Amino acid sequence: MVDPAPLLPHYSPSGAAKKPPPTSVDDTLESYVGGNCVLQLLQAFFVSFAWCFDAQQTFINVFTDAEPAWHCTGTDDAACAAAPSPCGLAPGSWAWDLPMHASVVSEWSLQCSGSAVVGLPASAYFAGCLAGGLLLATLADSVLGRKNMLFLSCLTMSLSATLTVVSPNLWAYSALRFLCGFGRATVGTSSLVLSTELVGKRWREKISIVGFVCFTMGFLSLPAMAYINRGSSWRALYLWTSVPSACYSVLLVFLIKESPRWLLVRGRRDEAIQTLKSIASTNDGVINSSFSKLIVAEDTGIVDIFSAMKILLQKKWAFRRLVATMISGFGIGMVYYGMPLNVGNLGSNLYLSVTFNALAELPSSMITLFLIGKLNRRCSMLTFTTVSGAFSVLCVLVTSKLWRMAAEVVSFFSACTAFNVLLIYSIELFPTCVRNSAISMVRQALVLGGVFAPVLVAEGRKRSFLSFGVFGFVIGCCGLFIVSLPETRGRSICDTMEEEEVKQNATSVTP
């Protein structure tokens, strides 16, 4: 039941006619805090920066676990010169181009190991992402909140990456990568949800894109750091990425406020009001609009970490939305995580290949940033998944390396844009009480697609259709499930399941 007592005193510094009090959290953030509050935006920007460290840990294995170049040491050894790999060659007849500690493969002599062993650290990382997403997904909606979940996720990710530096063997290394993935699983979700809930409707879409831009910058920083680090130990690359992430985790505790929207929904009204006051007090000392009553349907039904998931499965409309977004996410994730791995099969330079793919994310984020307010969610998702699938299949049909590379970049660019739109779409589809859990499940579907991608890439070295062809077919088919979802462009987001149901019923009866 809503408390009829005033929450804050009505204040009108100009003596002008009083405006109607805000009646929703969106109204509160817009009217009371203000649309251009500096602290409000700075906090959202800082929260979004977590995506940078997320990207670094996601793609770091491309460089640390790469097989280094090698050369024959003898001038007359025909067998060595004709060998496609050093595996099976006599010791002393060949040598690595770089020091042995430059890569995991050379340091632990994995050149003759099977693909499952060599790929174990990367597979363990994605397995950790899946496990963490399933076990931690609802904590941000239930007991921990957005801020604490983001802090614990970043701290676990950074500490496990730091411990990776002292890995004695492949098995310990893989275990630490699993732990890193487990912690990382909720970094992007918590960051995205918290940053968008700290701002009003006016800035929500733009702040969402800031996270994607930060992810791109983190992706772009990797080939630069790896190139500078070439010849040095692969362990140094983990230090370069984990130490800044650990410092960022500590700063989160002191600089960031908890989501007032989550506090209100969880019934912690006094804490929410204090948060709103602290943000508004920095807005040139002026409260743009006061309110006497804030009508928020408090959600007291989510009392344990699995209640949010249970509600999503029980409500037919929520289950339908979750299934459709997860299936679409699976296809998008397969191309998004698979394309950077598959670029190596084109025979291009590793550093340049990764850079080109990272650069493809930047215009994708920019296009989403400037057009998200105008884009119809369903139509844009269908368009980008179809284009990505078509150009992925085109990579199988063309023979020119240049045109294949161009088609691959277009396919990856379209998948990146679909990735961005899907996450924003998911924010708008699910109410506050289960939003973090729902988006976590969507992100796990994206990661699940990434789990299958390395296997297809390995098979694609023999037959390109099994990589590029399957990528295109899967993302194209999975994208079709978007047609079953409602359009959300320009619509305010809801806080409880009941509010969302009322809005859905009102939309369905509208002629």
Automatic annotation (TrEMBL):
Protein origin, superkingdom: Eukaryota
Annotated TM spans: 116-137, 149-170, 207-228, 234-256, 318-338, 350-372, 384-403, 409-427, 439-458, 464-483
Keyword Membrane found: yes
Keywords: Membrane, Phosphate transport, Symport, Transmembrane, Transmembrane helix, Transport
SUPFAM superfamilies in the cross-refs: MFS general substrate transporter
UniProt domain Major facilitator superfamily (MFS) profile: residue ranges: 40-490
Classification via Pfam families: MFS_1
GO MF annotation, one: symporter activity
Cellular localisation: Membrane
Cellular compartments per GO CC: membrane
Membrane topology: Multi-pass membrane protein
GO BP terms, alphabetized: phosphate ion transport
InterPro entries, per the entry: MFS, MFS_dom, MFS_trans_sf
Record-given protein name: Organic cation carnitine transporter
Source species of the chain: Musa troglodytarum
